[in-house]
Design goal:
This protein is of the alpha+beta class. The protein has two domains: 122 residues, no CATH class; 98 residues, no CATH class. Helix content is 20%, strand content 34%. It contains five helices and twelve strands. The strands form three sheets. The chain has a five-stranded mixed β-sheet with strand order 8-9-10-11-12, with helices on one face. The chain has a four-stranded antiparallel β-sheet with strand order 4-3-6-7. It is elongated.
Length: 244
C-alpha cells in the first residue's frame, strides 16, 4: 500500500486539489435534529446540554460506563467551500459516566450562541479521544455531521483501492471487499447510487472513489499511482477530520 500512502500524503501537502465548486444541495428532506438516529438524544436545559442514551444505544453506553468522557457542544462559525468547519467554538467539560445507563449533563453556558451539534467522547490517556456519539442541534449541524460522516467513510476505504503489488484494486474486488457498499461507476465524477460509494479505475494507474452526502454533494478522491498526483475536494477535511 506504499503508493496509496504517498498519495494521501500528497493530498495533505496540497499537491493538487479542487474545491467543491459551490455544489448545490438537492431538495431532500431535512436531517433530524436532536438525535443521531441511532438512539442518542441531546437537548439544551438552561445552560446545560443533556445527552441521553436510549435502549438502542445501550451498547455504546457500555463503552463509557464508569469511565471519563468529554461532553460538550460545538458552534460552527465558518465553513470552507467544501463544507469543512474552518472555525468552531467549543463549550463543555469532563465527567465520569455513571456505571448504569443515565443521562449525561454538562454545563456549556452561552458561549457562541446556540450550538450546532454536541458530542460525547471517551478519553483514552492524556490526549487520545474516541467519539461515541455526535448529535445535531441545528439544521447546519445536521448537514455538517452528514458531510463529515460521508468524507470519513470515503477516506476510510481508500486503503482498499490498491493491491499490495501496487496495482489498482479491480471494481469487482472492491465491491466484494466492501460487501456491496462500493459499486463500479463509468468514470471519474460520476455519482454513485444512493447508499453506495462509486469506484472507477483504468486498471493500471488511475483510481477514483466518490461518495454522495444526504444532500447530494459529491465528495471524491482521485489519484494516479505512477506519480501520486491527487485530485480531490476533501482536502479541507483531511486536516483534523477526526476532530469533534
Amino acid at each position: 500500500m506504499t503508493r496509496h500512502a504517498l498519495a494521501l500524503a500528497a493530498a495533505l501537502l496540497a499537491v493538487v486539489a479542487t474545491s467543491a465548486s459551490g455544489a448545490v444541495r438537492s431538495h431532500t428532506p431535512a436531517l433530524p435534529v436532536g438525535t443521531d438516529t441511532h438512539g442518542v438524544l441531546a437537548r439544551l436545559v438552561r445552560a446545560n446540554v443533556v445527552v441521553t442514551f436510549k435502549r438502542a444505544a445501550a451498547g455504546r453506553y457500555r463503552r463509557i460506563a464508569g469511565r471519563t468522557v468529554e461532553v460538550g457542544c460545538m458552534t460552527i462559525v465558518r465553513t470552507t467551500r467544501s463544507g469543512a468547519a474552518s472555525e468552531k467554538i467549543w463549550a463543555g467539560g469532563r465527567l465520569v459516566a455513571p456505571r448504569s445507563r443515565a443521562p449525561l449533563s454538562e454545563f456549556i453556558g452561552e458561549r457562541g450562541g446556540r450550538p450546532d451539534y454536541c458530542v460525547v467522547q471517551l478519553l483514552r490517556g492524556r490526549a487520545s479521544k474516541v467519539e461515541i456519539a455526535a448529535v445535531p442541534l441545528s439544521a447546519r449541524g445536521a448537514t455538517y455531521l452528514d458531510d463529515r460522516s460521508t468524507v470519513r467513510e470515503l477516506l476510510g476505504l481508500l486503503l482498499l483501492t490498491q493491491r499490495p503489488s501496487g496495482s489498482p484494486t479491480s471494481p469487482a474486488s472492491m465491491q466484494a471487499l466492501t460487501k456491496g457498499l462500493v459499486v463500479p461507476v463509468s468514470g471519474p465524477q460520476q455519482p454513485p447510487p444512493t447508499g453506495h460509494l462509486g469506484y472507477w479505475t483504468d486498471g493500471t494507474n488511475e483510481v477514483y472513489l466518490g461518495a454522495l452526502s444526504h444532500y447530494g454533494v459529491l465528495f471524491f478522491y482521485q489519484y494516479a499511482i505512477s506519480n501520486d498526483v491527487v485530485t480531490t475536494n476533501v482536502l479541507d477535511w483531511l486536516n483534523g477530520q477526526n476532530d469533534p
